[in-house]
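pinned: reference chain
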Amino acid sequence: MSEFNKFNAQEISIPSNLYYEDYWLNTNFQKWSIESFDIFWIQKNPAQHKKQDQAHSSLAKELNILSEASDQRVVEKVSLLKKQLKNGPSEICDIVWSKSKEIAESQVRLSLSELITKTNVKTAIVDEIGGSGSQRYFFKDHTGSFPMVTYNFYSVYMKFFTALDAYATISRNKPNEESQEYRDRSYDNNKHEEDAISSDSDDDSQNITESMIGKVERSPLVIDNVNLENIFEDYRNECENDFDLCHSDIMDLRPTSKFAEKISDEIWMKFVSNSFPKCTLPKDWEGLINDTFKPKNSLLEWINAFHELHTISSEKKINGNPIRDVIYNILCPYIKAFEAPFNILKSGDLEENQYNAQFINPILHNTLDAICSVDWRILEVPIESSKHRRNTNFNPLFDRVLSPKRADGLARLWENREEIFLFEQIGPPDYDNLTEFCLHDYKLTRTMRDILNQRIIFQLKDGTCDKEDLASFGALGYRNEISLYWCTIHQKTYCLREFGSFKIPHLWQDLPVLSEAIIICLKFFSFMKENIEKQKLITDLQQKLFSKRKVLAVIPNPPTPNRSKKRSKM
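pinned: its structure tokens
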């Protein structure tokens, strides 16, 4: 007997010396199906597509052998496979041949053998969405796999080369990656799998979906005829660091990223200028903030200015917004800390949670509350988006339900609990650990992608749409600096950008930096508010049903790579 790879501490055994032993051993037990077998067979025999029926004949013989296995789960799974096999021949050859004919009619001059070898329909769909290290968030309509080929030459041409890109992604697969995922899943709560949507559709359902969430096939990131996504793909192919965000299909366009070094300063600056959100505040807001935080000569002057905020009448609240209360609530913990005989911010015994709750949270909470009404929680808040993603396609009878990731701060919408903003703090102000910084930065970015994916699912379920592209938002705190980010999705990648950063004062002489902190946060949350505001569409029940179907088939992506032991460089 040959033991099957461990799946959540459960051992599944199958008879040895089977002809398709590689498929049974290297394919997750719960993913055994005729479609996954077709994908396996075509990848192993790309030039023998016409012999698919012969492969099914030999598969039927092996199913008879497996039906006598000692493991009841294998027997039940084999019974389902027999029913699928009985229903008819593989769909792959029929789809490839029929769609290749349509492509030929649309004047795309490509050989049929190259089409079948490089753009297998099911392979392109499954591997591009979730099986090959690519965490993209595309629908089948736009994976380049031709389920919706039109007779428009340019459209078909672009879809074909998108499929070629999917095939290139397949070639980067590591052996036994899926089995490794499930071997580790039972004991490692830090594994990352990603959600992706895949569904069959026709032209009508495509139009319905696009009317609800906008065009799923986003335009590429092109600046002065320079395609940033093409540069990104070259960078990803060359990158050997498994923990680089490029292997999570996240294009890191922050100023200090390694990928940004591949782009000229002129192109990068033009991209930032063209894509940076235009956020303005009322002049009275900025005037009051700047006047309050003008540099002062002593702590006593700061205390007097702080108490004078109480004397401002309620009529001076700008435009009905409590900007005075925002300043007062933010300044209060710092005045108390600097009034004390011993400065806790410089003491060295301030813990992360206290630092977050007492000094950082007032800035984020009050500025966020001044802009929009959301449910804001702090200190080890569970992230439901990560829980949904980590437990995709699990069997509750055999699989342990994995707990969600946790954050130091999380903002959710009141009406549907949709998560929108995430905050991670790395230790107290005197904590200096570059390893922890890199790990938290990696975790934050991937979790922002979870939140963005879940937002798209919410959009489909609710039948709502945004005027602007959906985004997720996050903040990362390290020592005395907080950085603000946002993440969007484009044609081939996610895109991570930095909005700005601000400092946390540790001495009373540093209190003027709170002026910049408040203004940046108000602008950032104003940008976020525009993105999360939704407009209900007037749509019938049939259209909503089409929309909900888009989230039925969810395929998990590979987990976070294992960390190797740290080494010293001589």
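why pinned: Confidence is low (pLDDT under 50) at residues 1-10, 87-101, 107-218, 553-557. The first helix runs from residue 21 to 26.
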